[in-house]
């Protein structure tokens, strides 16, 4: 399985999800994995969950899946998040709920790859945000595999180190790849293009943490859907951005009577 399409944080945005799947088919992948938060925020949680179960080799549970199963976990979340959880609970069937409950918290693949929704750092409720070199330094102490895949932040990122697992790791031991700068630079150079990408070499004698960004609700100022293709043979990761019909997504949100802000933020990539 040399090429793995890595998706995360679809958040009920079927319009974005379908465009990403079309791009995956064009690019080619041996398998697809999803790092959780298929539901929440967006109007089509059931359709997205059905499609993910059909297309993905592995799906891990995110905090929004946990929130649907245990509403008390979402009691202190913001209003948009709580509205998305309530909507998902209304849309999903009893069989869907059983399938959500059966999702694992982590997975391993090809003896090289580890996947979790939020961070390799142990946490309660899949709510640890891994954003900075300091966050990555802590997380690398728990990464035994060559590559760890994470989501949750809705921002594409990649960190690398050559320190040993379980050894103290400092921020200075971690390299943070300039993913957002490369992606936004490509977008500015090719105005009008529907797709742009940035590819990075992963360390051959170290470890990496890769976040593909969010399919359904990017939060890095780029409103295009985000995902990644991990190539285990060439040891590269390609971050992909895919434009989709934001107006259709807005209308789907409106028809579902979700808060206006749930869709207006999509246009901002925030």
Helix/strand layout:
Blueprint: E1 3-7, H1 14-27, E2 31-34, H2 45-55, E3 58-59, H3 63-69, H4 79-91, H5 94-101, E4 106-109, E5 113-116, H6 133-140, E6 147-149, E7 157-161, E8 175-176, H7 179-189, E9 195-201, E10 207-211, E11 225-231, E12 236-242, H8 246-255, H9 260-268
Parallel strand pairs: 1-2, 2-3, 5-6, 6-10
Antiparallel strand pairs: 1-11, 4-5, 7-8, 7-10, 9-12, 11-12
Any overview of this molecule?
- By secondary structure, the chain is α/β, with parallel strands linked by helices.
- It has one domain (3-268): 4-Layer Sandwich (Purple Acid Phosphatase, chain A, domain 2), CATH 3.60.21.10.
- Helix content is 34%, strand content 20%.
- The protein has 9 helices and 12 strands.
- The strands form 2 sheets. It has a 6-stranded mixed sheet. A 6-stranded mixed sheet has the order 4-5-6-10-7-8, covered by helices on one side.
- The protein starts with a strand and ends with a helix.
- 47% of the residues are buried.
């Amino acid at each position: 399985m040399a090429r793995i399409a890595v998706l995360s944080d679809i958040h009920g945005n079927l319009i974005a999800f379908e465009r990403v799947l079309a791009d995956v088919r064009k690019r080619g992948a041996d398998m697809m994995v999803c790092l959780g938060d298929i539901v929440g925020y967006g109007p089509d949680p059931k359709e997205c969950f059905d499609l993910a179960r059909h297309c993905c080799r592995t799906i891990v549970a995110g905090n929004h899946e946990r929130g649907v199963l245990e509403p008390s976990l979402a009691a202190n979340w913001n209003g948009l998040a709580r509205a998305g959880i309530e909507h998902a609970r209304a849309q999903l069937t009893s069989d869907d709920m059983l399938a959500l409950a059966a999702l694992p918290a982590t997975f391993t693949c090809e003896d090289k790859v580890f996947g979790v929704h939020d961070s390799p750092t142990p946490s309660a409720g899949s709510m640890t945000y891994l954003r900075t070199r300091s966050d990555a330094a802590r997380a690398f102490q728990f990464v035994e595999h060559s590559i760890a895949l994470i989501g949750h932040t809705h921002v594409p990122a990649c960190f690398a180190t050559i320190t040993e697992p379980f050894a103290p790791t400092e921020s200075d031991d971690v390299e943070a790849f300039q993913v957002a700068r490369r992606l936004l630079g490509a977008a500015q150079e090719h105005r009008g293009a529907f797709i742009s990408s940035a590819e990075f070499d992963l360390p051959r004698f170290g470890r990496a943490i890769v976040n593909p960004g969010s399919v359904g609700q990017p939060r890095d100022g780029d409103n295009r859907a985000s995902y990644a293709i991990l190539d285990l043979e060439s040891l590269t990761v390609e971050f992909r951005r895919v434009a989709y019909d934001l107006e259709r997504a807005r209308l789907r949100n409106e028809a579902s009577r979700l808060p206006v802000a749930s869709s207006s933020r999509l246009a901002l990539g925030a």
